Amino acid sequence: SYFLMPLDAALRLTSWNVQGSLSKKCVEVDFLDSVSKFDLVCIQETWLKHNDKFHIDGYSYFRSDRKLRKRAKRNSGGVVLLFRQSLAKGISKLHSNNSDIIWCKLDKNFFGFDRDVIL
After folding, report:
1. Which among 32, 39, 72, 93 is least surrounded, fewest beta carbons within 10 Å?
2. Phi, psi for residue 60 in degrees, rounded to 5
3. Residues with Cβ < 8 Å from 54, sequence gap 6 or more?
């Protein structure tokens, strides 16, 4: 089944460079309040390691972690796309050859668009 957004509805989208420690920010009230105002949140510089976990109530996500460089003292890079769980059936992750980029498709039928939207 599809969820059709009302014609007067708008997707709220933001981009945020968190400069690391995303897993720690996910418990900060100010961070969670800011995120909750948006449907899609593009996050850069997550600095997450492959086994790092995080959770934000009401949101699903796609993530791409940058591999730790041999001489690096800490992680760097990394991107996450957060999206409301209610939108999950209309968003799919597309292939990317670059670990610093997440491409996704917003399904036209789910969102009521004239055509698919690629982010």
Report:
1. 72
2. -110, 175
3. 22, 23, 26, 48
